[in-house]
Specification:
The complex is a heterotrimer of chains A (404), B (331) and C (301).
Chain A: E1 6-18, E2 21-24, E3 29-34, E4 39-44, E5 50-54, E6 59-65, E7 83-88, E8 95-101, H1 111-143, H2 150-167, H3 172-201, H4 205-227, E9 243-245, E10 248-250, H5 252-274, H6 276-286, H7 288-293, H8 298-323, H9 330-345, H10 350-366, H11 379-391
Parallel strand pairs in A: 1-8
Antiparallel strand pairs in A: 1-2, 1-5, 3-4, 3-6, 6-7, 9-10
Helix pairs in contact in A: 1-5, 1-6, 1-8, 1-9, 1-10, 2-3, 2-4, 2-8, 2-9, 3-8, 5-6, 5-8, 6-8, 9-10, 9-11, 10-11
Chain B: H1 3-14, H2 17-36, H3 43-60, H4 65-87, H5 92-111, H6 116-119, E1 125-126, H7 130-134, E2 142-143, E3 148-149, H8 151-175, H9 178-188, H10 190-195, H11 200-226, E4 228-229, H12 236-249, H13 256-279, H14 293-296, H15 299-314
Antiparallel strand pairs in B: 1-4, 2-3
Helix pairs in contact in B: 1-13, 2-8, 2-9, 2-11, 2-12, 2-13, 3-4, 3-5, 3-11, 4-5, 4-11, 8-11, 9-11, 12-13, 12-15, 13-15
Chain C: H1 7-12, E1 26-37, E2 40-51, E3 55-59, H2 66-73, E4 81-86, E5 89-90, H3 96-102, E6 104-106, H4 119-126, H5 141-161, H6 177-190, E7 195-199, H7 207-222, E8 226-230, H8 234-240, E9 243-248, E10 251-256, H9 258-263, H10 265-275, H11 280-300
Parallel strand pairs in C: 3-8, 3-9, 6-7, 7-8
Antiparallel strand pairs in C: 1-2, 1-4, 4-5, 9-10
Helix pairs in contact in C: 4-6, 5-6
Classes of the chains: A alpha+beta (404), B mainly alpha (331), C alpha/beta (301).
């Protein structure tokens, strides 16, 4: 660490006064980088709006404010930059960066505007969930296994992208592609090394689920070991200005996320409908024993489901990292949402996974507009999950199963 | 390397309060998974409501200590009912999904900024354990030569192992009865049990409640021995470690979780101490690029994850178990 | 066949041999029962009555909906429509365990013995009204010890009757296929049912055991119980059943005494004639395959 030199940032909202002082803004992530782009550290503002990032020494640094972490109802106005250059000349914690935040306060933003914004961001988030949910459904359909290590496959995508991007110096787009490839390889490897031998041994599904929680613990700890406990960002597209199309406001990376997810999901769905392998996958998920007896190579179908499923899930992680940040806990937090999505739609059905994901994405993002505290907006998904199980356990698009 | 020191730490930990927390949690999971075949992947959620039940009652609501203890049990009972109602008529994975999701959601709620006034946010709650501390009859710690416990830890392990003994006694008495026979039958084939006129749903619910309340007790004890409840303590790793403890000792045996918890915690503490020593000091044995001291504490989770997988695959009956008796290998 | 007929058997002589015929003393009466799986009508029974005190066989090619009808009647599956009653008690949306408690107990095509419990424990589980199965009484052995002993002696009697007493302490998983069938039947008797429903009791049983199994099924009737069974083994149907109901494609196509049904042209057409010598399991797969294809088409549409 350094010698106590640090950049101290105080974030406050000039348009809202508390006791005559600008109101502090809590929970905003600030990242400090050197002028060659290396990240020095980051911190989140506390209840007094203060954050402190230790520095290795003097020099010129850039402080970046992560716009996505701003509380609901607060936006930077057009005059404000999200990046600030700071020159640190002396040692000691004396350097202060101030972000004057021009704010559109909550009351000036109409309810309708907020609602539209949150629905759009819900659709975007829903599509990210959908990629992972599609992956889970493919694997579930082919193997019958509810994979509790699925969240870690999301983390894998983000973490690997980060490594390719920050450590290997690839641009984010290439790093993301590489991460999807790595995910696909990992999907192949985990089937080959772990799940296929278990199938051969005739290990039961309950036992496999226990194996999957062991695998989840193992992977998550490996990620924490190698990636560290902190939250990081890719080195491009971190903060972007939003463009407006009528009531819809999106920045470039958000548009990219929506387009990429839509294209990939559509491609997968078409492939499932039209190609031989897609039809085989659906047949196996309908009736594995029959498919095997009618000469289908069930093992290769399952292998492909693992490869494709893990790759899709990895992509979900790549986009999640692009949308917000990368952390070893990304997947753990997404797991709840992915499970809620597939259960809502109907476990193992592809259309159900998509529909469920969009519903969950929107519920999670719209919730705060209706007063759900934003730090626990994921809890809404759980409520939906429990309700749907009470009312229609097979999910919206699922079928009742045959017994006996 | 000081092997004697590592051995001492491991032994001290294996019989100490933290091991007891895992033993209690694993006894609850044994009722769920071992005897009934219910996949509760959210034991940490039961533990969290047990811990917060006490802390919130005493610190926030200004209730008495004993009321807090009662609230802990009621909270665990209510959670079991809420989780069981939608899932216990469905395939086994639904309970697993809902329990793991709920335990994570509870952790988010307990740690949330917005509900800081009720649950204390990410710093949690303290200052509820005075009654418990005042009950401590010991005037001094104990020195057993090789290992020793301070005064409050001596009280913790006295209370803790007594609770373990009571839970084991209850589980033993229940599982040798016809009630236990119904549970074991449900674990094997619930349709068969249903065809014989047993209300399978009610039995599963009773098992979920019993195991969940033992989980709540584990959380309560965790809160007492720690003197603070912090939301991050109740993450899914806690559940997974308890599963590993159960599988080490052998599921569906009364003393399985006890033996398993002690052995697991002995190994993990020994491992932690070993890597701790290897990464500490100005010139650590392991180079820092390979492992630093914060990474050394993660080795226990990596090893546990691997152990859980390998146990389930190669020795589902546990280290001492008899493979014929355990029902979890086949399907 | 025994020369002297019981009153219940004799009464069947007066019954018309039409599908869904009324019986003089029915224990089960059902009508309008349908169940569809993804567009395929697995069961579509207009009317069905089961005579009390006799052995009724339910036959038909695979995929005819016999097991599904079993599942529906016993509460293991829910129909799309229909009502049925047992001893006058309406059973729509009554859960499976309550149906069993009313005295209508079934066995399964693939036996469901509890493999990791011993044979005697399997038997004890069957007894109803056990105090020791109540959570609050269970921990206190002295409260249920007496009842447990009674149950055990009843179980031992049944094990002796079914020649399983030598296996008493073995894990049920170690039994042969035929012994499992016997154990399942014996366990069902622990419930003391009025109507016992056997799903393919002869499937997978070695020929040596078949004769004694036939005897056991007849003995159930002789002690006053009603028996309904699904079977492919025509020998068994011919030998022991008093009445035969024939299903095909979810519907009841014929009813009657074994002799009249075997001679019925409708039955020969629907079942015996067309596929008399074909392997039934092949038919089953063909039907399933068609079902899956139909579903995939449906999804695409």
């Amino acid at each position: 660490m350094g010698d106590g030199t640090a950049i101290d940032v105080t974030l406050s909202d000039d348009s809202k006064k508390v006791d005559g002082q600008p109101a502090p803004i809590e929970g905003v992530t600030l990242t400090v980088t050197t002028d060659d782009g290396t990240e020095v550290g980051e911190d989140v503002t506390d209840a007094e709006g203060k954050a402190s990032i230790p520095l290795p020494g003097g020099g010129t640094y850039t402080v970046t404010l992560d716009e996505d972490t701003l509380p609901e109802g607060i936006e930077l106005d057009s005059k404000t930059r999200t990046e600030l250059e700071v020159r640190v000349l002396i040692s000691g914690s004396a350097t202060i960066a101030a972000f004057p935040i021009g704010v559109q306060a909550a009351d000036t933003t109409g309810f309708a505007t907020k609602l539209i914004d949150s629905i759009v961001s819900g659709i975007k988030f829903g599509l990210i969930i959908a990629l992972a949910a599609l992956g889970l459904s493919l694997i579930f359909g082919a193997t019958g296994l509810t994979n509790f290590a699925h969240g870690e496959l999301i983390t894998l995508g983000g973490v690997v992208t980060y490594w390719f991007n920050r450590d290997a110096g690839l641009p984010v787009i290439l790093a993301g592609l590489a991460a999807v490839l790595v995910s696909a390889l990992f999907g192949y490897a985990q089937d080959r090394v772990l799940w296929r031998p278990l199938r051969r041994r005739g290990t039961g599904l309950i036992a496999m689920m226990i194996v999957s929680i062991g695998f989840a613990l193992f992977l998550r700890s490996i990620f924490q070991y190698t990636f560290g406990g902190s939250t990081q960002t890719y080195d491009q597209y971190v903060a972007q200005v939003r463009h407006s199309w009528g009531p819809i406001h999106l920045n470039d990376k958000e548009i990219a996320i929506i387009v990429i997810s839509l294209v990939v999901i559509t491609a997968v769905c078409i492939a499932m409908m039209k190609t031989r392998m897609g039809k085989a996958m659906r047949a196996v998920s309908d009736n594995p024993a029959l498919s095997a007896s009618s000469g289908m190579r069930v093992d290769s179908v399952i292998r492909n489901a693992w490869i494709l499923g893990t790759a899709l899930t990895g992509l979900s992680g790549v986009l999640l990292g692009l949308n917000s940040q990368v952390s070893f806990q990304n997947g753990g937090r997404m797991l709840l949402l992915v499970f809620a999505a597939v259960t809502l739609g109907g476990l193992g059905t592809i259309w159900g996974a998509l529909l469920g994901s969009l519903v969950i994405g929107i519920i999670v993002e719209v919730g705060p507009t209706f007063g759900v505290p934003s730090s626990i907006k994921e809890v809404g998904a759980l409520v939906v999950l429990i309700l749907i199980l009470l009312v229609r356990p097979q999910g919206i698009l699922g079928r009742r199963e045959r017994i006996g | 390397m000081d092997f004697l020191e590592i051995l001492r730490t491991a032994l001290q930990q294996a019989l100490g309060p933290t091991a007891i927390v895992y033993v209690l949690a694993a006894i609850g999971i044994n009722v769920h998974f071992g005897y009934t075949g219910l996949l509760n992947f959210g034991q940490s959620g039961f533990m969290a409501v047990g811990a917060y039940g006490l802390a919130v009652t005493v610190v926030i609501l200004d209730g008495s200590f004993w009321l807090g203890v009662a609230v802990s049990f009621v909270a665990a009972l209510a959670l079991a009912i809420v989780l069981g109602l939608p899932t216990l008529r469905l395939r086994a994975d639904y309970l697993a999904i809902v329990t793991i999701a709920t335990s994570e959601a509870l952790r988010l709620v307990f740690g949330s900024v917005e509900m800081k006034d009720t649950f204390g946010g990410s710093n949690g709650l303290t200052g509820y354990s005075k009654v418990y501390k005042d009950l401590n009859p010991y005037s001094d710690g104990i020195d057993l030569g090789f290992i020793s416990y301070r005064r409050d830890d001596l009280w913790n392990i006295t209370v803790g192992w007594s609770l373990v003994a009571i839970c084991c006694l209850v589980v033993w008495a229940l599982m040798r009865s016809p009630w236990g026979r119904v549970l074991r039958s449900i674990r094997e084939d619930e349709d068969a049990v249903r065809s014989l006129g047993k209300n399978v749903f009610a039995y599963k619910m009773q098992a979920l409640i019993l195991g969940g309340m033992i989980g709540g007790l584990a959380g309560l004890f965790f809160a007492l021995k720690q003197a603070s409840v912090v939301p991050t303590d109740y993450n899914t790793n806690l559940t997974f470690l308890a599963y590993t403890a159960l599988l080490v000792g052998g599921a569906a045996r009364v003393l399985g979780p006890v033996v398993g918890g002690v052995i697991l915690w002995f190994l993990l503490s020994g491992l932690g101490a070993t890597f701790g020593q290897m990464t500490s000091g100005p010139d650590p044995i392991l180079p820092t690029w390979l492992m630093d001291s914060s990474q050394s504490s993660l080795t226990r989770f990596i090893v546990t994850g691997l152990a859980l997988m390998l146990l389930m695959i190669f020795r589902p009956q546990g280290i001492f178990g008899d493979r014929r008796e355990i029902a979890i290998d086949g399907r | 066949m025994a020369a002297e007929l019981t009153a219940a058997q004799a009464a069947l002589a007066q019954v018309a041999t039409d599908p869904g015929a009324k019986k003089p003393d029915p224990i089960v009466v059902g009508s309008g029962i349908t169940r569809t799986f993804g567009g395929l009508k697995a069961v579509d029974v207009e009317h069905i009555e089961i005579q009390r005190g006799v052995i009724t066989a339910l036959i038909g090619p695979n995929g005819a909906g016999k097991t599904t009808l079993f599942n529906l009647l016993t509460g293991f599956d829910e129909p799309n429509s229909g009502q049925w009653s047992f001893n006058g008690n309406a059973l729509q949306s009554v859960s499976a365990y309550k149906v069993a408690r009313l005295g209508m107990v079934r066995t399964f095509q693939l036996t469901k013995v509890l493999a990791k419990l011993t044979v005697i424990e399997n038997m004890r589980l069957g007894a109803t009204g056990q105090k020791g199965e109540k959570f609050w009484l269970a921990p206190f052995k002295w409260l249920w010890k007496g009842q447990e002993d009674e149950i055990t002696s009843r179980a031992d009697d049944l094990l002796a009757r079914f020649k399983l007493d030598a296996k008493r302490e073995d894990f049920a998983g170690s039994l042969s296929g035929g012994q499992r069938k016997l154990l399942e039947m014996a366990r069902a008797l622990m419930v003391d049912p009025e109507l016992i429903m056997l799903d393919e009791p002869m499937a997978g049983v070695n020929p040596a055991l078949k004769q004694s199994l036939l005897g056991h099924v007849q003995s159930l009737r002789d002690e006053g119980r009603t028996v309904l069974f699904v079977e492919h083994d025509m020998d068994m149907v011919r030998h022991i059943s008093d009445w035969v109901i024939v299903m095909a494609q979810g519907q009841i196509v014929a009813e009657g005494t074994p002799q009249s049904v075997m001679a019925d042209q409708r039955v020969i057409d629907a079942y015996l004639g067309a596929h008399h010598d074909t392997d039934l399991s092949e038919l089953d797969e063909a039907a399933l395959e068609a079902e899956v294809e139909a579903e995939i088409k449906e999804e695409q549409a």
